[in-house]
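Supplementary Methods, section 5.1.

A reviewer requested that the exact input to the structure prediction be made available. We therefore reproduce it here, unchanged from the version used in the analyses.
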Amino acid sequence: MHQRTVAVIPARYGSTRFPGKPLALIAGLPMIQHTYQSTLACPEIAEVVVATDDERIMAAVAAFGGKAVLTSPDHQTGTDRIAEAAEQLDCDLVVNVQGDEPLMSGAVLSALIRNMRSTHADMGTAAVPFALSGREPSDSNAVKVVIDRRGYALYFSRALIPHQRVGGQAVEPLLHWGLYAYTRDFLRQFVSWPQGQLESCEMLEQLRALENGARIWVLVTTERSVGVDVPEDITLVEKILQQHR
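The structure derived from this sequence is encoded token-by-token as follows.
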């Protein structure tokens, strides 16, 4: 069976909280370049493509020798954008790497891809214990996930889950890391489904998969995800880059 994994990085210019975020400079280079190069360093990934709706991002990717495709400006979600780009690619597994993850871990990518191959899951993602994340579980921007004994997601929420009742046993929450892998066939199916009630309520795309009975395998890692949500996060990323030089 032909097996080829590609990574697609959705990159939109019009971020509400941080307009032009993919082109924000980090240590002198645009953020999208850091994300692209970190992803390309993963040995399991054959090709990396940026999927964007903006000519400025296309030009920036071309300037550093990367590959980008121009997608429809009408997509409601990053997954829709990825699905359009994936139709032009030779692959059976698609990895969704968020463009605001300039320090993407090659080890985490490799582990997710290898486990997707061995578990034969339709969809996979990653999570880290909150104790190692530097984030607060009470933060609604920090998405929580609970999993079953085999590592499959039970639910994702912006609320603090599970709720510890008085006298109940504490369960350490997991911080969902916005990294996904899908089989190509499942990705096509996923974007054909209408938005579900839970997805509309929490504004979390992955709930669409759960609402339709799909299983999402979760890689639990101890590596810290350092995403860029607001301009102030760039200082932290630059500090970490400096430490690794």
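Residues 106-119 form the longest helix (14 residues). These observations are discussed further in the main text.
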